[in-house]
Amino acid sequence: LLIISNSFMFKLNMNRFILALLCFFTWSVQSTQAQEVVVYSARIEQLIKPMFDAFTKETGIKVKYTTDNEGALLAKLEAEGKNTPADMLVTSDAGNLWAAAQAELLKPIKSSVLAHNIPAHLRDPQNQWFGLSIRARTLVYNTKKVKPEELSSYENLADPKWKNRLCLRSSKKVYNQSLVAMMIAEHGEARTEEIVKGWVANLATDPLSDDTKALEYVAAGKCDVTLVNTYYFGRLMKKDPNLPLAIFWPNQDKNGVHVNVSGAGITRYSRNEQAAVKLLEFLSSEKAQNLFADVNMEYPVNPAIDADPFVESWGEFKQNPMNLVKAGELQTTAVKLMDRVGYR
Ligand code: FE
User: Fold this and answer.
1) If you measure from the C-alpha of residue 91 to the centroid of ligand 1, how many angstroms do you get, rounded to a whole number?
2) Structure confidence by residue, pLDDT tens digits, 294-305
3) How many whole angstroms from 21 Cα to the centroid of ligand 1?
């Protein structure tokens, strides 16, 4: 009986051992599989690859990415639903990030690292998206035609003194939609409508297809002042430092410059959430913030990090501290308003 019971115990232990071995094996396979994050990115490859490489070097976690425009990526995420391979969405403008959250494509992430690294107004109050770099939408003027003292605020560009002197990018792009949405949050709809109507009345040309074109028009003297994201100014001035263009930081004695972000969120159906959060935290960290911001001449969101010296040379400015979620919440209202006043 003793022998039988001994051999029974041995078998039992052996079974346990095999079970434990199997468990360990499955766990290690799973954790190897988890060592990869899939990113859908509306930021082009050259703007994201350097940080992804740095992340892989530090953690051993691989990053696979697909780049496309934000509309296509959102449609893809929506169509794939629960079967999406994507763990993270990277895109520009709070308006786009908000739209992804609104379409239930992102999941809320509680992370003390992200809360610490990213100022509250540059991330979703519901924690579904997080700003990773700042672009300011500011005034740029022709230095031969305008004295900086003549400029003051976004609102002031509606003054008749700017008649036939203003160039604007088309209202179809999210950038101006976000700016107008933030103005509605600040001033209410009626006052904002008056301001935007004033802009339209002051236009020197039809609205232009992009920020670079708007800058080129100002440089060529076809208009005197425009509204653009800072990195477009940076790109153009790097190419031709002698252009008669300068940045003006508006609303400094008021609410501050309208800033927006490029950012990211974890997809609702991410299968590698832990690794994806690690990547997101890394992107907000000191190690990656310069990589993320400098390649596109943007500002780091992490206040502990300085911008690239060329970007710093444009001077310091006060930024509007209102939460960017408003750019999304009031986007439709802004689009309708711009349409009503004939801003094409
Ligand atoms: Fe852009």
Assistant:
1) 10
2) 999 999 999 999
3) 53
